[in-house]
Structures are given as structure tokens and as C-alpha cells.
Amino acid sequence: MTRKEQSAFIRQLCRSIEKTVTENVKREPQTEAWDGHELRMLLLEHFRSAADISVIAREPKTSRAREYRNMITTTNVF
Q1: Quick one: pLDDT at residue 78?
Q2: What kind and span of H or E run contains 72?
Q3: Are 53 and 46 in contact (CB under 8 A)?
Q4: Per-residue pLDDT tens digits for 27-75
Q5: Residues 43, 21: contact at Cβ < 8 Å?
Q6: What's the pTM?
Q7: d(CA 64, CA 69)
Q8: What distance in Å separates the CA atoms of residue 55 and residue 50, rounded to the nearest whole number?
Q9: Which residues in 11-26 are b (16+ Cβ under 10 Å) and which e?
Q10: Counting beta carbons within 10 angstroms of the beta carbon of residue 50, is it exposed (0 to 12), middle (13 to 18) or buried (19 or more)?
Q11: Which whole-number Å values give the CA distances from 65 to 59, 62, 70, in the listed order?
């Protein structure tokens, strides 16, 4: 994946989650009293759900998953 494709993927995923969460919150009256705490958790759950399809999430013992975790802990990516 090129840098341009990576950027496009990130934007598309974030926009999709933003749209879904915003629509769900507007539709449900029970969410009216929510502040940043509940909204952060809701976003976390949506992003986690989106990540669940990743081979790294599904197969955490693979070399690809190990390489990913190593990159996260040894660089400033996170």
C-alpha cells in the first residue's frame, strides 16, 4: 500500500466510523446526557470492531502480529 493509499484508507475508515457513531447518537435519546467519557468508549468499541477483521487481531501469534507489536513498542508510531 502506498503512503497515499494509507492516508486514504485512514480517512475513509475514520469518516465511516464518525458517520455511524454520530447517526447512532443522534437517533438514541438515551445518549443525550453522555459526555466525553461515554463517547470515547463508544468510539473505542467502534474502532475495535473495525480492527477485529484484521489478520493481526485474529491471529496474534503470527510473525506479522509480532512484527507489528515490536514496531509499536520501539518507534513513535503510537
Answers
A1: 85
A2: helix 63-74
A3: no
A4: 999 999 999 999 999 999 999 999 999 999 999 999 999 999 999 999 9
A5: yes
A6: 0.86
A7: 9
A8: 12
A9: eeeeeebeeebeeeee
A10: middle
A11: 7, 5, 9
Give the SS3 label for residue 1.
coil
8 Å CB contact between 10 and 47: no
**φ/ψ (deg, to 5) at 21:** -65, -45
Q: Which of 31, 22, 1 is nearest to 10 (CA)?
A: 1
Largest CA distance in the chain: 45
Question: Do 38 and 46 form a contact (C-beta atoms < 8 A)?
Answer: no
Residue with cell 484484521: 54
Secondary structure (DSSP) of 22-70: HHHHHH-GGGGG--HHHHHHHHHHHHHHHHTTSHHHH-TTSHHHHHHHH
